[in-house]
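anyone seen this seq b4? input:
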Amino acid sequence: MRKYLHLALGVAAVVFATAPFAIHWAPYEVTMGLVQKIFYFHVPSAILTLVWALVCGVASAIFLFRKSKYADYVAVASAEMVVLLGSMMLVSGPLWGRKAWGVWWTWDPRLTSSLMLWITFLAYLLLRRFGGPGSDKLGAGMALFGMANVPFIYVSVNYWRTLHPQTTVIPNLVPPMAGPLWFAMLGFLVFSLVLVTLRAQLEEQRDRVEALYLAADES
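predicted toks r here
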């Protein structure tokens, strides 16, 4: 396992080192110019925020219904990734929106629901850290609630009038823009997979140490 993690980390490092050149060679968008290149960081972080929210929700459901401890470890690691990538999404989006829309933030459905998703998983982590006994099951319920928000975030721009571009933008990108985007997506995906795997392993080891402390106290 460690061998594959090192390989994946190497792939991510190569992608992140070369992605700026691919993004530099990508053509400028006609109306926004240079600032549009935030797109290549904002979109991967936004997509993977939703993906890891789904993973956290599914892992939490497995933990609730099948009592799988490892699923709970994956849920905690995925929630941390949601908060990390969600922070990137919420910072890069307004930077791009200020140029595109003339305002830093609009309370349209996608932006508002994305902020709610980030707050939900931040609350999940706070609950798991400070909630005490039973916080794992309560947190799993919160993760399921957060996961239920993901489809709404995705389709919201297609059903409500909003400044945010619709979901048809990415499939219709011209190749000079699509190539750098998916290349950057690869780097974000591989790196986040490595981080989640390592974080789940760390959570498992922490749980074992706590179990040993409890056993020592009882004896």
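Helices lie at 2-25, 39-66, 69-101, 109-130, 135-159, 175-218. The chain is about 80% helix and 0% strand. kinda curious what u guys think
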